[in-house]
Design a protein that fits this description.
The protein has 405 residues and is mostly helical. Helices cover 68% and strands 3% of the residues. The chain contains 16 helices and two strands. The protein has a two-stranded antiparallel sheet. Strand 1 and strand 2 form a beta hairpin. It starts with a helix and ends in a 12-residue tail after the last helix.
Length: 405
């Protein structure tokens, strides 16, 4: 019974993803139809909190049913303890500290949900929800292109779920829908998602299709060359007017409009602002600043802009600032190593192998794209997939009988 309820909650989780897609569509045109964006943000926060509470209930129930707490829990517990200790030492903001604690607890609950439930999921159970996400993105992206041609809106629509949809169709062997989904991903105009997706395709085809770790190593070395070649061709044929490619001119060294500060959408300025926020102190560089860290964000291309923030759009740097270099290395070396190891493993039945391929490839995307966003501390789906990967790595594919009681 509990396992059946967990599958129901999994469907609700993916419907939550669908809500985020619809939310982004409404957000694009909110100011033109009289909708308050702050109200929309509040609704999104409520939905996220409901998802968090629901997952927490299922995880606690399963723990009470004799399921062991994973060794991975030590990582999250240490992170919470460590962050609180340095919050007291550095006297950080109490409000920001609560936000940071919530993000880590949210990540832990999502991870445990994936580890305890979803490793037993049949691949075909995912079909309906990913087709739903595919068709919603098929509506959302053209809507964004039309709206952006009529009004001045943020130059890039995108949610990471479209990458998960692409990986699902890739692993399922549906070539046509995979190509269409990939084109939708490019048309979104989100450079971080596009670059991370391109890198993950290199990983998948070298490690899984060609089954060669050596080619994976060569592919990683050649990836910058492939990327620069792609940017050169886009500039040479003047393709910046095509949907999704307009903002590449700011990050292409071959473009006359190259500007890293504009091209990074403020990410470079975030980094410089964080350095100024540390105020020359050396201890945060060695041990992290702890929970509650805030800084004043200024933009080099908007002299009158200033905002106090408790986050930045770079997950490794965010973890580094809060918890220090040890946790960054531990997190990436361990979870990325697990994902790549599971991705190339053999000997499963067809459904399990497809779930394995999908979850590990999506987990690699989740980790890599964190270099361009705060998804590692804000995207529960990625943590759920990491939980699935770690469940496979422990060879726990057999579902305990009491789950069906």
């Amino acid at each position: 019974m509990l396992c059946k309820w967990s599958f129901l909650w999994f469907r609700l989780m993916l419907l939550w993803l669908a809500f985020l897609i619809l939310f982004n569509i409404v957000r694009l045109s909110a100011s033109y139809v009289g909708i308050d964006i702050l109200v929309l943000g509040g609704v999104a926060n409520v939905i996220n909190f409901v998802f968090f509470v629901g997952c927490s209930i299922f995880v606690i129930i399963l723990w009470s049913q004799r399921a062991r707490v994973s060794v991975h829990s030590i990582f999250f517990i240490l992170a919470l303890f460590y962050g609180w200790v340095f919050w007291g030492v550095n006297e950080g903001s109490s409000v920001a500290a609560v936000k940071h604690v919530y993000l880590i607890v949210f990540a832990f609950v999502s991870f445990e949900f994936g580890r305890l439930f979803l490793f037993a999921l049949d691949f075909n159970r995912l079909k309906g929800v990913f087709f739903l996400s595919f068709f919603l993105n098929l509506i959302a992206v053209p809507a964004f292109i039309v709206i952006s041609s009529l009004y001045k809106v943020y130059p890039g629509y995108g949610v990471q779920s479209i990458a998960y949809v692409c990986f699902y169709f890739l692993v399922a062997g549906n070539k046509y829908l995979f190509i269409i989904a990939s084109l939708i991903l490019v048309a979104q105009g989100k450079r971080s998602i596009f670059l991370s997706y391109l890198f993950c395709l290199v990983v998948y085809f070298t490690l899984v299709v060609l089954r060669s770790r050596f080619l994976l190593f060569i592919g990683c070395l050649l990836f910058p060359v492939i990327l620069l070649s792609l940017l050169f061709l886009i500039d040479f044929f003047s393709l910046y007017s095509m949907p999704g490619l307009s903002r590449l001119k700011y990050i292409s060294p071959f473009s006359g409009d190259f500007d890293l500060f504009i091209g990074s959408s403020g990410r470079a300025d975030e980094f410089l602002s964080v350095i100024r926020g540390l105020d020359g102190a050396y201890l945060p560089y060695l041990f992290g600043a702890g929970f509650g860290f805030t800084y004043e964000w200024t933009l080099s291309y908007l002299s009158d802009f200033s905002e106090v923030k408790s986050y930045l759009h770079n997950s490794p740097l965010m973890i580094y600032i809060l918890l220090g270099p040890f946790f960054v290395l531990l997190f990436y070396v361990y979870f990325l190593g697990k994902s790549l190891s599971v991705m190339r493993s053999r000997g499963w039945d067809q459904s399990s192998e497809r779930v394995l391929r999908f979850s590990s490839l999506s987990a690699v995307f989740f980790l890599v794209s964190g270099g361009f966003s705060l998804n590692i501390l804000s995207d529960p789906v990625g943590w759920v997939l990491l939980g699935v990967v770690c469940a496979y790595a422990k060879n726990t594919m057999r579902v305990p009988r009491y789950l069906y009681a």
